[in-house]
Automatic annotation (TrEMBL):
Protein known as: Protein kinase domain-containing protein
One Pfam family this sequence matches: Pkinase
InterPro entries: ARM-like (IPR011989), ARM-type_fold (IPR016024), CIK-Related_Protein (IPR051177), Kinase-like_dom_sf (IPR011009), Prot_kinase_dom (IPR000719)
Domain Protein kinase: 105-388
Entry-linked SUPFAM superfamilies: ARM repeat (SSF48371), Protein kinase-like (PK-like) (SSF56112)
GO molecular function terms noted in the UniProt entry: ATP binding; protein kinase activity
Residue runs in coiled coils: none
Species: Pristionchus mayeri
Family: Belongs to the protein kinase superfamily.
Length: 856
């Protein structure tokens, strides 16, 4: 091995075996070894022996993110250091390190190329916050030609240094925020900013921008320019798509101050003309430059120059990335295009809209005095949009310190604007603002919950998971009264859209805690919310927790009709999924609603009908049915405040319950008789005579007029095969009465249905034949017909029929079990069998036609 150069300081020595002499290491390499990068002095010295050509290639790869070691700037040569394994070059997205920035930032990942910058995503060491790292490789520096004399000192690095320094001094929400100042080394220049997605050129061309976001972004650029012109007294000088960056929160922010100038006096700014002698990289973009920059002997410009650049930028954005001026750095072409800007605007008139096109014709005017200020441009009708206004206020919500104004904006203005905001913006703009500004604002969570639940209810299913964190956070703070009431009123949205066990558990706990609360408004909110979520509540929760809590509410319900109505509605909704045991426990709660108000009586009647319609066979305990359901309805019949419609409805429910009790009693008697006689279960098999299974025949009957003459008017009725005449044209009360009695109450399998083939008669016997008692009973519908036309025209028969109709016997079941003076033995011996469906059908047809011909 050749002898090594002069020895380094005494504290540095080689750890590699076989090397006896100390290494000569440059101060830069000594510093890198001291920084604890994991490189020993020998490795640093060997790395420094690389050829200059190889170092250039390696440096270029480093800027692209192709680093093979933990410390950039040094290439790992396995041929020189056998102890180190060979590592393949990683992709540009691999993690890199950039000293000395690696002291402040970690987890660097290459993201994109923005103009002359390589952009990396990173996280700060202190605070662990997301940021973006801008890196410029000095090897890519551009200098002015030497023949320009003093201009030789101008280079791209000088413009970068001026740009970042200006950017660091400006503090405004519409200016790119610098979080770490410029680091300038021999290899690169770098600074850190807030996290970005890229510049405007990448966003518009690669991803596309909606019209709403275009309006919002242009207004943000206008706000930034207004700040520069009026507050900072600065002219931007090069407002191009590459000078506008889009942050991760979709905010448009101005950057690129390489050619900015300060005002000399008033509204005059120095003018540096565009020249062919300099490279285009060292000058503003000619396609976005105002024409007055190129005027002969032009010494100064005004803010109208930036207004012209803004107009060209707006045309570029609305045109989808197409330049309205494309001179290709040729001054002659630029002059020709500027003279035809009106024709160029007509080409994109459809994208701009009429109002914006008229404004841009003034903005792009060659006459400086015609151009409006940027503030006036923001006031045109094109930007007068409630959705845009709401999103602008949301972007600036951090500057609002009054919680009341924040709450009003979130619950009223933003909520009203959400239907007009595209769904992608909900999750790219609105939700990030909530995450940035409102996570700790627990006092306004009620106002935040309103737009959150709207987004949850109307968003696509694949976006629901994006709201899960916020929904959980809101439910953890539902101890606030207003927030808890709002969540209870909107539980159906949460149960239906959120498939999350934690959310459901929190909601069920909220229901219980609210019902146990001493605040009656909280109890009312919980009870009113139950019907909308009854189908989602587990039956175990209902039986073991919810119903026991309801049993503790007599004081809350006492003599309060609205609260009792709410509870009956909740019980009716819960009853749909109950089995026999749970339904018995649920109907016990009906007795808590003890008010004798007509609406309470009718609500109980509807609850009974709902239970029977769903499955009446779940009612197994006659004592329970009579005490909790039948008794309140019977007592309620005495109320004179019941309307005729409600009275008929309650009567129908009572008949249903009587049929159920009768069926349960008859089944019990049959069971006891079978057990005592030793008869098998098949001996008691019966055929259901439910009217749902029997055919119906449409018949017509002439209706006599009040004047006594018969007209051709016909009454449309449906005759069911079990002997009921159902009038489809009757009023609602009679419809509910007849349809429930003939369609619903029979569905329970009433015990009075006996087939013709059945020869078995119980010892106690049943009532007289349904057909024999036909003359002594009539349905609620048949009472409207004159009973004198059913049997005979004689006066005695008419009186007999009227007397029998006044008894109001039940439609399906004849009255009582007592058949007059006949002894029990006779009843048991002569127990008739109930006619089958065809017998009933024929009997009713005979009576109908007889009535029809006698009348004629």
């Amino acid at each position: 091995m050749k002898s090594l150069p002069a020895s380094p300081p005494s504290n540095l020595s080689s750890p590699i075996s076989g090397w006896r002499r100390p290494l000569a290491v440059s101060p830069t390499l000594q510093w890198r070894a001291k920084e604890g990068s994991g490189w020993d002095v020998a490795t640093l010295w060997l790395a420094g022996r690389e050829s200059r050509k190889h170092r250039k290639k390696r440096a270029a790869g480093l800027v692209k993110g192709e680093c093979t070691a933990s410390m950039p700037g040094l290439h790992q040569e396995t041929s020189l250091i056998p102890s180190r394994p060979c590592v393949s070059p990683p992709s540009p997205s691999s993690i890199v390190a950039l000293p000395p920035l690696d002291k402040h930032f970690q987890s660097l990942l290459y993201k994109t190329q923005a103009s002359h910058w390589k952009v990396y995503s990173a996280r700060s060491v202190f605070g662990d916050k997301d940021c973006s790292l801008f890196v410029f490789n000095r090897k890519e520096n551009v200098k002015a030609p030497p023949r320009l004399g003093r201009m030789t000192r101008l280079s791209l690095t000088d413009l970068i240094r001026f740009d970042v320094n200006q950017l660091h001094q400006l503090a405004h929400p519409r200016i790119l925020q610098v979080v770490h100042p410029l680091e300038d080394t021999k290899e690169f220049m770098a600074f850190a900013s807030e996290p970005i997605k890229g510049n405007l050129e990448q966003l518009v061309i690669e991803e596309g921008v909606s019209k709403l976001e275009m309006k919002l972004g242009v207004l943000q650029v206008i706000d930034g320019l207004s700040y520069l012109h009026n507050s900072a007294k600065m002219l931007h000088g090069n407002l191009t798509p590459s000078a506008v960056f889009v942050t991760s929160a979709r905010m448009w922010k101005i950057s690129g101050f390489s050619f900015s100038v300060a005002a000399k006096e008033g509204n005059e700014y120095p003018c540096y003309p565009w020249t062919k002698k300099l490279p285009s990289t060292l000058q503003p973009d000619l396609d976005f430059l105002a024409p007055e920059y190129l005027a002969p002997n032009q010494q100064s410009v005004t803010t109208a120059a930036d207004v012209f650049s803004l107009g060209v930028l707006i045309c570029w954005v609305y045109g989808g990335g197409k330049r309205i001026i494309d001179a290709k750095n040729n001054l002659e072409s630029y002059a020709i295009v500027c003279g035809q800007l009106d024709e160029a605007l007509n080409l994109i008139a459809e994208e701009l809209g009429q109002n914006l096109k008229e404004s841009l014709s003034k903005v792009l005017s060659l006459d400086v005095d015609v151009r409006p200020s940027v503030q006036l441009l923001a006031l045109i009708k094109h930007f007068d949009d409630p959705a845009v206004s709401a999103l602008r206020q949301l972007d600036d919500i951090a500057q609002e310190f009054d919680p009341t104004l924040k709450a009003h904006f979130l619950s009223q203005i933003l909520f009203a604007a959400l239907p007009n905001i595209p769904e992608p913006l909900w999750f790219s703009r609105i939700l990030p603002r909530f995450n940035e500004q409102l996570l700790d604002s627990t006092e306004i969570f009620t106002s935040v919950a309103k737009p959150l639940l709207y987004m949850l209810e109307h968003c696509e299913s694949h976006n629901i998971h994006k709201l899960k964190g916020w929904i959980r956070n809101v439910l953890e703070h539902c101890h606030q009264k207003t927030l808890a009431s709002f969540l209870l009123e909107n539980m159906s949205v949460l149960f239906r859209r959120m498939s999350d066990d934690q959310v459901e558990d929190n909601l069920m706990e909220l229901i219980l805690s609210s019902m146990k609360n001493e605040d009656t408004s909280m109890q009312s909110s919980a009870i009113r919310g139950i019907p909308s979520v009854a189908e989602f509540l587990p039956m175990g929760f209902v039986l073991r927790k919810l119903l026991p809590v309801i049993q503790t509410l007599p004081g809350y319900l006492h003599d309060n009709v609205p609260r009792q109505l709410d509870l009956l509605a909740a019980l009716a909704a819960l009853s749909d999924r109950c089995d026999t045991a749970s339904l018995q426990q649920l109907t016990t709660c009906v007795s808590l609603c003890s008010a004798h108000h007509p609406v309470i009586i009718h609500a109980k009647s509807r609850l009974v009908q709902r239970v029977v319609t769903r499955d009446g066979s779940r009612l197994k305990d006659p004592a329970h049915v009579c005490f909790h359901l039948l008794n309140p309805l019977v007592v309620g019949l005495a109320s004179r405040d019941l309307s005729p419609a409600h009275f008929d409805d309650v009567m129908s429910s009572i008949r249903i319950l009587l049929d159920i009790v009768e069926q349960l009693r008859y089944d019990s008697d049959n069971r006891l008789a079978q057990e005592s006689a030793g008869v098998g279960r098949l001996a008691s098999r019966r055929v259901s005579m439910s009217s749902n299974n029997l055919p119906r025949v449409m018949i017509t009957a002439a209706r006599p007029s009040l004047t006594g003459d018969n007209s051709d008017l016909r009454k449309m009725s449906f005759l069911s095969a079990d002997g009921r005449l159902e009038d489809r044209g009757r009023r609602e009360s009679k419809d509910s009465r007849g349809s429930i009695e003939s369609d619903v109450s029979i569905r329970i399998g009433n015990g009075s249905d006996v087939s013709d083939d059945s020869s078995y008669h119980s010892q106690k016997g049943r009532r007289q034949s349904w057909l024999d008692s036909y003359g002594h009973s009539c349905s609620l519908e048949q009472t409207s017909l004159d009973s004198s036309r059913i049997f005979d025209r004689s006066a005695s028969m008419r009186r007999s029929a009227r007397n029998s109709s006044e008894r109001r016997a039940r439609t399906r079941s004849p009255t009582g079990d007592v058949l007059g003076d006949r002894p029990p033995s006779a009843r048991s011996i002569h127990q008739p069998a109930r006619p089958n469906s065809f017998t009933n059908l024929g009997h009713n047809l005979v009576l109908t036609y007889r009535n029809f011909w006698q009348k004629d």
